[in-house]
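Hi, here's the filled form for the chain we discussed.

Project: internal
Contact: R.S.
Residues: 497
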Amino acid sequence: MPHFPATDYTLTDAGTAQNRIGGRWVAALSGDTLGVLNPRIGHDMGRVAMSDAGDVDEAVAIAEVAQVGWAATPIKARAQILHNWRVLLEAHLDELSWLVAHENGKIVSEARASALKGIECLEMAIAVPNAIQGGILEVSKGINCQHRYEALGVVAGVVPFNFPVMVPMWMAPLALIAGNAFILKPSEKTPFGMCRFVELAEEAGLPPGVFQLVQGGRPAVEALVDHPGIKAFAFVGSTRVAKLVYGRATALGKRALCLGGAKNHLVVVPDADLQMTATNVVASSMGSAGQRCMAASVMIAVGDVQDIVDAVVAQCKALTLGVEVGAIVDADAVARITQHIDFAVAAGATLLLDGRNATPPADAPDGCWVGPTVLDNVTPEMPAGCDEIFGPVLSIIRADTLDEAIAIENDNPYGNAAAIYTSDGGTAEYAISRFEAGMCGVNVGVPVPREPFAFGGWNDSRFGHGDITGADGYRFWTRGKKVTSKWALSSDNTWMS
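And the returned structure, exactly as it came back:
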């Protein structure tokens, strides 16, 4: 692929995102392609290949050959190639940031941050040889027990549109450092960023066929899940699809880890710091235009916190579309988000700030836009109070006590993230110890753990065991082998001898 030349938001042609198989760019066997929308501009920026089972068969066959040599490469040498990849990604950071901004609709600062988080995940993988390798212990005189982590073979991942270069980096680096060959299916809505990532990986020294891309939609996903050559499968997307994919993969005897949706809650109590809380709530709910599983779409206002509610609304009103708030991924998503707002108002919610029909940026009148929206007096039973909206919509639920607020959080089927805003350490610990969520924050509305701490929720936000990053992520892409050795006759009379 050519270097992506954009240095501003002007519509830029990206060509066609093809499959990367065996170190070559190849069209889908069917020849089919689909237009790729630039959400900010509202016009296509290129096309993407639409693959099926035949393309997956080709990729797996090449991966099986490449993986043998890659697994035989010492892990320190694999880490050096990943380090070279990191250097190249940092050198191309501006290009990658603008590419993500164009294909996803993010403002460029958010696109840059997402690429940097992906690079941080790569750093974690580079550290694996020194951090989470197996161990050896002399358990008796002359007898050693050893634990090794070995590659599974060919593995695969499917990722969503909202973080097109960050979420793949939750998966690929750890799978690769373990000695696997990895096949990625990007979202057909945002296929271009990972094309450049894979090119740069091969430029860094990664052998062709070790990291491959298969573009496409549902047929490609199903083919990856079903292929007998795929030994483990990871997925990030909606809860409905995550549950279906997990069931399908595990029924075939595959190892699977599938992350779903979320309905995260920010609990605000009266002693919370006004300025810090308001700013943080706005950043959590409106960042990435609310299109992230870590967006806190519900604020539970405990007692009298009206001053904080007022400050949140004022800060949301001050946000400018296209400057602080990016575009929505497509027109269908705009319609779904606005419908949620319509339903909430019809059900009795109070509309404090209406983002429907917000004025788009002057240079992007045809883009997909929804402005910041704040709904008050929402109930947990309303769709706005329990469904994942995936847009810049904050629902405020009122509660009289902290225990009532915690019960509301825990009654929702998801368990991705929850946060408490308070100036009191005891109150914070009381809430954190009772939240039914895998990632919790204290005065932090997007409690994404930094590496090496792992990312992952509970309940209907995750299907499978363990987290997708950190040490859990590495173990997911490996299998443990235990070796007990004795090389000298021992005169000790123990149960081992």
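Let me know if anything looks off before we file it.
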